[in-house]
Write a structure and sequence with these properties.
The chain has helices at residues 28-34, 57-73, 86-89, 96-113, 130-139, 144-148, 151-156, 171-174, 185-199, 213-229, 275-283, 301-312, 321-330, 335-361, 365-394, 401-409; strands at 25-26, 44-49, 79-84, 121-124, 205-208, 239-242. It is mainly α. The strands form 2 sheets. The protein has a 3-stranded parallel sheet. Its EC number is 6.1.1.2.
């Protein structure tokens, strides 16, 4: 089985940081130490990733690899749910055939990195219609003012983060370039869909990066608003597992995050890149002309990015990027030698992943659906149960025989 060949490297411990945000951040390693008794409440962990092509190194280190660790370290009673969130992907126009291919590639990536369909619930968001229904219900409780203050939709709409948008105020959008596409409702309201994704499964913990902290706070606020409206505790307020800040930067512009939207293919490492491709991309990665190697993201972003990558691939060996940097400097490591070390480490890490990726992509559609079938059934069952509970609380159901008789006696 593909899932049984998970690389040992994926089982290394990762460090977890805490935040001062009012969202309750959780140290994952502490959670695991605490969660040893079968009497502990079961955790439900949910996370999702958009299908936008072959994952790059930033996707792998920041999301996929930590998910595998969560899966492998979870207790038997824990439920892990990982989704291909393709409804989020259509906030911009997508080519039909391209999106189909991207969905396939993303599920193959799940299998390639070591996510196990028998242990984790794996499915595509659009295959579970309850996500859309839940979004509509929650949108009736979502504050327009709160949504307008969200920073990520402003960046995607090409608006400055400090743009003072108010409800139904079109002026910020009128300042966009004439050839820029008009922002769509889906882009503005996608945090509601994100909240629906989480609350639909009674999620207790969500692994996210710091840039998603605002969305988790919005999700908790929305859950509290719904629960208060119906004096219930139907919606679980999720806690956050804050992933370590694994910000992998572009190889060609190291002041920017690595991105699949960058027109320069040499700016990123894909999990399917061959050894030769990896070495070529790292060899041409932008650094500087300063002799020696030391960690300074401000003054030496390119060199620091390479040190970060090497550190993330060896977190069990080094306490921090600075620790690794001191060892490299002590060994009088040259930039050329550093690049060779990074390329070799990347190839060693990704070799088993790209081999399994090739196997998964060679699956026929029917075989891939078999792997998805169990996850789809589990996700469908849980989500429909949650929707039913909410609609019943809201009065959107016909009631049982006993309730109809009671209404009759009361004259209802």
């Amino acid at each position: 089985m593909l899932s049984s060949t998970t690389s040992r490297a994926l089982r290394r411990a990762t460090s977890h940081s805490l935040s001062k945000s009012r969202t309750p951040y959780v140290c994952l390693s502490c959670q695991q130490k605490r969660h040893v008794s079968s009497n502990e409440p079961r955790r439900t962990i949910f996370s999702g990733i958009q299908p936008t092509g072959i994952p790059h190194l930033g996707n792998y280190l920041g999301a996929l690899k930590p998910w595998v660790k969560l899966q492998n370290d979870a207790q038997p009673r824990d439920k892990l749910i990982f989704s291909i969130v393709d409804l989020h992907a259509i906030t911009v126009k997508q080519d039909r055939l391209q999106l189909m291919q991207w969905r396939r590639e993303m599920f193959a990536s799940f299998l390639a990195v070591g996510l196990d369909p028998k242990r984790s619930v794996l499915f595509a968001q659009s295959d579970v219609s309850a996500h859309s229904e839940m979004m509509w219900i929650l949108s009736c409780f979502a504050s327009m003012g709160y949504l307008s203050r969200m920073t990520q939709w402003k960046s995607k709409a090409a608006l400055p983060p400090d743009t003072p948008t108010t409800c139904f105020d079109p002026s910020p959008f009128q300042r966009l370039k004439k050839d820029a596409p008009a922002p769509k409702l889906g882009l503005f309201s996608y945090p509601v869909l994100q909240a629906a994704d989480i609350l639909l499964y009674n999620t207790t913990h969500v692994p996210v990066g710091e840039d998603q902290a605002q969305h988790l706070e919005f999700t908790r606020d929305l859950a509290q608003t719904f629960n208060a409206a119906y004096k219930s505790d139907i919606l679980t307020l999720p806690e956050t597992i804050l992933s370590p800040a694994r910000r992998v930067m572009s190889l060609t512009e190291p002041t920017k995050k690595m991105s699949k939207s960058d027109p320069k293919i040499e700016s990123r490492i894909l999990i399917t890149d061959t050894r030769e491709t990896i070495h070529q991309k790292i060899k041409t990665a932008l650094t500087d002309s300063i002799p020696g190697v030391h960690y300074d993201p401000e003054l030496r972003p390119g060199v620091s990015n390479l040190i970060d990558i090497l550190y993330h691939l060896n977190e069990a060996k080094y306490a921090s990027p600075e620790h690794l940097s001191r060892e490299l400097a002590g060994a009088d490591t040259s930039l050329k030698a550093l690049k060779e070390m990074v390329a070799d480490a990347l190839d060693k890490e990704l070799e088993p992943v790209r081999e399994r990726m090739g196997e998964a992509m060679n699956m026929k559609g029917e075989e891939m659906l078999k792997h998805l079938d169990n996850g789809l059934k589990v996700a469908g069952t849980i989500s429909q149960r949650q929707i039913h509970k909410m609609k019943k609380e809201m009065g959107m159901w016909w009631g049982g025989e006993g309730e109809r008789m009671k209404r009759g006696r009361d004259g209802g």
